[in-house]
Amino acid sequence: MTFLDIEGLSKSYGMVGALSDVSLRVARGSRTAIVGPSGSGKTTLLRLVAGFEAQDSGRIVLDGTVLAAGRDAMPAHLRNIGFVPQDGALFPHLDVAENVGFGLPREMTGRAARIDALLDLVELGPALRARRPHELSGGQQQRVALARALAREPRLMLLDEPFSALDTGLRAAMRKAVAGVLAKVGATAILVTHDQTEALSFADQVAVMRGGRLVQAGAPDELYRRPADRGVATFLGDAIVLDAELEAGIARCALGRVPVDDAARSGKAAIVVRPEQLRIAPAGADGSGAAARVVGVEFSGPASTVWLALSDAALPEFAVSCASSECPKAGRDVRVRMEGMAHVLRG
Amino acid sequence: MLSNALPRPGRLPALRVPAAILVPALAVSAFSLVPLAFVAWVGVETGAGEVARLLLRPRIFELLANTLLLLALTIPLAAAIAVALAWLTERSDLPGARLWAALGAAPLAVPAFVHSYAWVSLLPAMHGFWAAVLVSTAAYFPFVYLPVAAALRRLDPAMEDAAASLGLAPGERFLRVVLPQLRLPIAAGSLLVGLHLLAEYGLYVLVRFDTFTTAIFDQFQSAYSGPAANAMAIVLVVLCLPLIAGESVARGHERYARVGSGAARMASGARLGRAAPAALAFAGLVALVGVGVPLATLLRWLAIGGTKVWQLADIGPAVAGTAWLAFLGGAATTLAAVPMAWISVRSPGRLQRFLEGCQYYTGSLPGVVVALALVAATVRVAMPLYQTEATLVAAYLLLFLSRALASLRASVAQVPVDLEWTAASLGRTPVQSIAQVTLRIAAPGAAAAFALSALGVANELTATLLLAPNGTVTLATEFWALTGEIDYAAAAPYAFLMVALSVPMTAIIHFQSRRIAGR
Q1: Set of chain B residues whose Cβ sits within 8 Å of the Cβ of A14
Q2: Pair B222, B88 in one domain
Q3: Inter-chain contact A75–B13, Cβ cutoff 8 Å?
Q4: pLDDT tens across B355-400, in order?
Q5: DSSP secondary structure, B391-450, as one string
Q6: What ipTM was estimated for this complex?
Q7: B203 touches B136 (CB < 8 A)
Q8: CA of A157: which chain B residue's CA is closest?
Q9: Would residue B431 count as lying in a domain?
Q10: What domain count does chain B have?
Q11: What is the pLDDT of residues A80-109, one digit of tens each?
C-alpha cells in the first residue's frame, strides 16, 4: 500500500527549475533510493519531503496526512520525519548521548535507557556515550546520526548521501548495517545517492532523476534489465547501446540476430545489451554471433577485462569480463555471442 | 484535510525566514536609517533657502577647505607610509620584520585623542594644520598598513618571478606587478582613513584645528539642536557618503580576492643590502611617531603624577561607568546583529543585501551625526528618552553594529545548515534551532562581536559627550575633562587605562589579518 504519495511536485529557485512535476509512491516499510547525477534535483526532492523548504506546487501525503499542497507546507519540526544528513552533521557542542537524545523531551521518563537502547541498536557501545563527535570515526558518526534520527520513532527516514564521506571498504559495511537497522525497526526510508551500486543494493525501489525530472522508478533488477532510455541504461551500469531492426521478437544488429524482450515492436529501434550477457568464443567455432577482434586485455586476478572491436560494424570498443583461464590473447579474432534477451528502448 | 494553520511560505527565495528573526532584523534596519532620515528631515524642515543661507557663509567654506585639505594631505601620506612599511615588513629581509609589523598595527591601540594629547602635552607649540596632519597620519596609517600587509602576504610571488624573467628590474616589478595588485587594499584602507578623519573630534580640538566635526560640536553646544549644526551635519554626511560607498565596493572586491588564495609559495624577502640601515631608520621613525611618542609621553605624565593621580574615588566611578556602558552597548549591539547575521548567511538575496547595507553604513558615520540624529529624534518623537542611557546605548548600537555584524556573520557561516535542518527534523521550531544549535556553536563569534563593540564603546568620546545623561562619567569623558583643564598628569591614568583596554583588540586584529593570510 502507498505510504508516501508525492504528486506533481515542482520547485524552482528564481529562474532555475530545480524540480519539475515529480510523482513518486513509496510503500510502507520499504526502502527507496533516489539516484541521479549532481544537479538532478534529488536533494531538492528530499528537502521538500523533509519540509526544510516549501514547494512551488504539488502534493505530499504521508500516511493520510497532507504535508504539503499547492504552496502550503507544514514546517519540518511538525512532520516527525527523521533526517540523516551528509557527514552525519552531529552537533559539535554536544556529546554522543546528548546528540542521540536531542529529539527526546528532557522530562521523558526512561530517557537514559532509551538513549542506551538506541546506541545498542546501531551497535555502539556505552563507552562512547560521553565522547564528542570529533573523537569518533566517520562510521561511528554515521551510526550516531542514525540513532539520533530514530529516537523519535519517525514515520519516515530520509538519508541524504549518508555514506559519501566514508571510504569504500566502510561504505558497503555501513550500508548493510543501516539497512539492517532500518529493517529491524520496520522504518520506511528514502536514500539519496549518486552511486548507482549503492542504490541498487540498498533499495526495494530505485528512482532515477535527471534534470529535475523523475525519469523512471521501479524495482532495482527491473530498472537494470529494462531501463526506459539510454541515459538510465548507462547510468545504472555498463551498457552497449546498438541500432537494430526489429521483427517478431528478433533484432538484427551488429551482434547478429538476437532475441529482444519486446515481441510486439517492429522496425528501427535502439536496444541495450549488458556486457555480462556477452560470451567470447574462438573464431569459427560454430558461426553464431558476430566476428570481433581482441584489441586489449586487462588482467586483474581471477577475471580479466577483454576489450573488443566488432569487425563488421563501426562501433566503439567495448569491455567484456572473462575468466582469466579462458581469456583470449590480444590480436586474436574471436566471435561474440549474446545470452538472454536484449532490451528495447522506448521511443 | 490541509489545515488552515499551515504557514504561508515566505517570498524570500532561499529559505523561509521565521518572523521571529525577520521582524527584529527589519526593525534594526529601519532604526539604522534614522541618521539618514534625520538629514532628510533637516533639509525639508529647515527649507532649502534657509539651509543655503546657513551654509553659504565664509566660515563654512573655511571649514570645508580645512577638512578637504586635511583629507587631501593625510590620506596619501598615510598610504605611502603604510605601503612602504608593509613592503619592508612582508617582502624584504628587514631585520626584526615581525616586531616592526606589530608596531605597524600598534597605533590603533591608542585612541586618536590620546595620540593628540601626547603630542600637545609634549610640544605645546604643536597646533594648527600641520600638527593635525602629523597626528592624524600617526594615528590612522595602520588602517592602510593592515590590509596592504595582508595582501602582500597573499600575493603569489610566482608573478614577480615571471616579471623578472621577462626582464623587469626590481623597482619596475614593484610598480608594474605588485602595486597594481595592491590597489584594492590601498583604496579600502585609504577610504577608511578618510572616514575617520571626517568623524574625529577630540584629536582636532586638542591641536586647535577646526574641521566640520569640531564646528558642528561647538554649534550644538552653544545652540542645542539648532538649525546651524543640523545644516552642517548635512554637509558632513554628503562628504561621508561617497567614501562609504567606495569603501564598501573596495571591501567587497577584496573579499573575492581572498577566495582561492590557495597554497602559494611564500615570498622570499628581497635583499635590502646597503639600503638596510635606511630602511631600519624609516621603520624606526614610523614606530617612534606612531607608538613611541604616545607611550613615552604617557609614561612621563604617569611618572610625574606618581601615586597621587591614581585616586580610587575619581578613577573608580569612571571605570565602573565605562564598564557598565561597554557592557550595555556590547550586549545591545550583539543582540541586534544576530537576526541580520543569520539572514545574510542563510537566506542571501538582493533585498537581504539592502537590509544588511542599512545596518553597515551607520558604522562609518561620524559619532556627531549619529548623536545629532538621536537628539533630534528623541526631542521630536520620544522626549522621555532624551538624555537617557537608552539613547546613548542606541547611539553605540548604530556606531558599532557593523563590527558585531561582520564578526557574527563569519561565525554563523561556519555552522553547516544541515545542523539546523537536523534540529528541525528532531522537532525544534526554526527559532529554537537557531538559538540552541547555530548560536550555541557560533558563540565564539558572538563573544568577539560583543568584545569588539564593547571596546568601541569604552573608547568612544564624541557621541558620549553629546548624549550621556548628566552625571555620567567614563574613562573617555573624565580624560577629556581633565585634558580640557590642561591637567595632563591627572589625565594620564585614564589614557593609560583606555590604551590597556585597546591592546587586546588591536592584537586580535593584527593576528587575525596574519591568520587570514595563512601565517
Answers
A1: 13
A2: yes
A3: no
A4: 888 888 888 888 889 999 998 888 888 878 888 899 999 999 999 9
A5: HHHHHHHHHHHHHHHHHHHHHHHTS-HHHHHHHHHTT--HHHHIIIIIHHHTHHHHHHHH
A6: 0.76
A7: yes
A8: B425
A9: yes
A10: 2
A11: 999 998 888 888 888 999 999 998 888 888
